[in-house]
Amino acid sequence: MFARFAQIASVNLTEQLSRLQAVAENFRDRSLARVKHQGISLGLAAALAMTGLIFAILAAVAGFIALFLWLQPQYGPFVALGAVGASAILIALLLFTSASAAANRQPPPWPKLQTPAMPAALKAFGSGDVADKTAAMTKHTLDTAVDTVRTGSREAVLTTLMATVVLGVMLGRRR
């Protein structure tokens, strides 16, 4: 009887393992196909962006040549070259200013630290009064630590981190 049960269980395990292997292979194939598709899409987007950049440069060069050819008969070659150079410098300054403004953007403010509700294990540990006080002290400690890290001086942050490391080493030391 036991031999029959073992034979049925082993067949079932073998069947389950083959199903699991088929599911894993299907997942691998779908993942590889998705990565390939995203890679091809990214490559195509990069190629189109580079082509657009080349044509934008060609358009700017053509515009500068047209500006030179338009100004040169009326004012001479040096004034025309000066106008082309001045317009190129103006465009470069505008682009550098916009790049600087984009780089100096302030990040969004940090969200307020949300502490989860008191776990049931903590409530079961002691009376509700002790559990409530412990939760309030923990929230206050976390808020103070977060405020110190965000707005404190470097010395205060480094002191806090070093104290945390020392305390962790002392508590983690095996006796």
Spell the H/E element sequence: HHHHH
Number of strands: 0
Instruction: Calculate Rg over CA atoms.
Output: 34 Å
Name the helicity range: over 70%
Characterize the overall form. Answer: flat
Number of H/I helices: 5
Given helix and strand content, the structural type is mainly alpha
Domain count: the total is 2
What gap, in angstroms, lies between the N and C termini?
A: 53 Å
Largest sheet: none
Mean pLDDT: 77
Hey, roughly how much beta strand do the residues contain? under 5%
Uncertain regions spanning at least 5 consecutive residues: none
Explain this structure:
The chain has 175 residues and is mostly helical. The chain has two domains: 9-103; 120-172. It has helices at residues 2-75, 77-103, 120-125, 128-151, 154-172. Helix 1 runs antiparallel to helix 2. It starts with a helix and ends with a helix.
Task: Label this structure with key terms.
5 helices, flat, mainly alpha, 175 residues
Short description:
With 175 residues, this protein is mostly helical.
Provide the fold topology.
Layout: H1 2-75, H2 77-103, H3 120-125, H4 128-151, H5 154-172
